[in-house]
């Protein structure tokens, strides 16, 4: 079968589409589900893996692919899945082939109203958003959520999950093109990153927001803290800006605010069944249409590396997806 592989750690444009053996049902940790892959989502871990900069460091050659969607080819008894089932899957890597092996805890039923391309955009970003908002922030209906990087994959996922929980959402973006993406994803208001603090204060009548979802970090961090209402929670998800900010804790004391880390993968992978419970929480939102992942761009399988390069160049809007079939 064809697979998108890292053979040397020279970044996304060094990724090769190679012919390798198909996986088998017998995996290192027991029987596996085999999936005929239709689409793979381009993810930030894929980009880091291609450079050898991810916390997991498999030895090349290895197959990329964190998020993918397709049709079950075979499944072990008791897995809860059967041949022909439409599924979305997530794993550390290995899904970017024509056939992928996965486990029941990493496999989720894909509703008929969600396409394979959207399915490949769902698992990592939407489970991260659900974990951040519900588990870490304790979101409540009627709260206001500020989303940095609101036109990206995690950003659009956070907008939709927050709306599913009954929140008001303010998106922060850098261009009008990205503002249109955030609005289409469901943001109630969208502001430009330059001067976002003043804009947020105006939109909230000077009160501030209850939750900030921050994938950017860097220079925006202090103003994100200042944008919080009393007892607000700032969620640290990533550092797209490239620099890791520091917190002056007196800011937290004065307004009874929190800074909370969001490490979904580490948390979820250590708790069997946790991701399945998350998915069930999201299923009503998928059924209602609140969750409908916006696909920014689609690529042919041969262009897997280019999809990641465009992400690295910050050209991606929404979630980029690679078609396999």
Automatic annotation (TrEMBL):
InterPro entries: ADH-like_C (IPR013149), ADH-like_N (IPR013154), ER (IPR020843), GroES-like_sf (IPR011032), NAD(P)-bd_dom_sf (IPR036291), Quin_OxRdtase/zeta-crystal_CS (IPR002364), Zn-ADH-like_protein (IPR051397). Coiled coil: none annotated. It comes from Nocardioides marmoriginsengisoli. GO terms for molecular function: oxidoreductase activity; zinc ion binding. This is NADPH:quinone oxidoreductase family protein. Residues 11-322 form the Enoyl reductase (ER) domain. It holds the Pfam family ADH_zinc_N.
């Amino acid at each position: 079968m064809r697979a998108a592989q890292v053979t040397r750690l020279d970044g996304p444009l060094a990724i090769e589409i190679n012919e390798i053996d198909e996986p088998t049902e017998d995996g290192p940790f027991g029987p596996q589900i085999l999936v005929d892959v239709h689409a793979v989502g381009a993810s930030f871990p894929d980009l880091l893996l291609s450079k050898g900069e991810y916390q997991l460091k498999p030895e090349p050659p290895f197959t990329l692919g964190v998020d993918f969607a397709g049709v079950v080819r075979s499944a072990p008894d008791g897995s809860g899945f059967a041949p022909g089932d439409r599924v979305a899957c997530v794993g550390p890597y290995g899904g970017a082939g024509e056939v992928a092996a996965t486990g029941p805890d990493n496999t989720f039923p894909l509703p008929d109203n969600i396409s394979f391309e959207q399915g490949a955009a769902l698992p990592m970003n939407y489970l991260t958003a659900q974990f951040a908002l519900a588990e870490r922030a304790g979101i409540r209906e009627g709260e206001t959520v500020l989303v940095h990087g609101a036109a990206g994959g995690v950003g659009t996922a956070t907008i939709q999950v927050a709306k599913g929980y009954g929140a008001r959402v303010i998106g922060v973006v850098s261009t009008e093109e990205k503002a249109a993406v955030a609005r289409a994803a469901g943001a109630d208001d969208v502001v430009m990153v330059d001067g976002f603090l003043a804009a947020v204060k105006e939109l909230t009548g000077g009160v501030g927001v209850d939750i900030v979802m921050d994938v950017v970090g860097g220079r925006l961090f202090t103003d994100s803290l200042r944008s919080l209402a009393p007892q607000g929670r700032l969620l640290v998800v990533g550092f797209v800006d490239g620099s890791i900010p520091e917190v002056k804790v007196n800011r937290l004391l004065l307004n009874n605010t929190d800074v909370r880390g969001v490490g979904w993968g580490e948390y979820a992978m250590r708790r069997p069944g946790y991701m399945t419970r998350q998915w069930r929480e999201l299923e009503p939102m998928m059924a209602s249409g609140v969750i409908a992942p916006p696909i920014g761009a689609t690529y042919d399988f041969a262009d897997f590396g280019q999809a990641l390069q465009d992400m690295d160049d910050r050209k991606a809007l929404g979630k980029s997806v690679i078609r396999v079939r």
